[in-house]
Design a protein that fits this description.
alpha+beta
């Protein structure tokens, strides 16, 4: 499923200064990287399950993606390219446009792998608690 973030920039990302979408649970912030990639930024160190939760929540609630749509990891957890924070990871709904090849998830959910993917509904399940 391809959803262009550029169509949503003014309505979603434009809600806060600098183009960030704040108001995510647990202090998460989401920023556009380009038309198809968004960066999930944390205020602190978190494992992969927390990144999946935030990425899924954003895709489902703000991009209106179906719970059956897949989200894909574009970059591993590391320094943010859209902020000065040390903990961020990038995701997409369109791996072809993002230039990544879909691949399997690591055995350890707390590790992210480029191309790793799962259904939004499954990833959103990590938000409990």
């Amino acid at each position: 499923m391809k959803i262009s973030l550029s169509l949503l920039t003014a309505t979603v990302f434009g809600l806060t200064a600098g183009g960030a979408f704040a108001g995510m649970p647990h202090g998460w912030e989401v920023n556009p990287v380009n038309d198809v990639v968004y960066e999930v930024v944390s205020e602190g160190a978190h494992g992969g399950a927390a990144f999946w939760c935030a990425a899924a929540d954003f895709a489902q609630v703000h991009l209106k993606a179906s719970p059956n749509a897949e989200i894909y990891v574009v970059t591993l957890a590391g320094p943010s390219v859209t902020t000065k924070r040390k903990s961020a990871a990038q995701f997409t709904l369109d791996p072809v446009a993002a230039g990544i090849t879909p691949g399997p998830l690591p055995d350890d959910l707390n590790e992210l792998a480029i191309g790793g993917h799962m259904k939004i509904g499954v990833a959103h399940g990590f938000c409990a608690g």
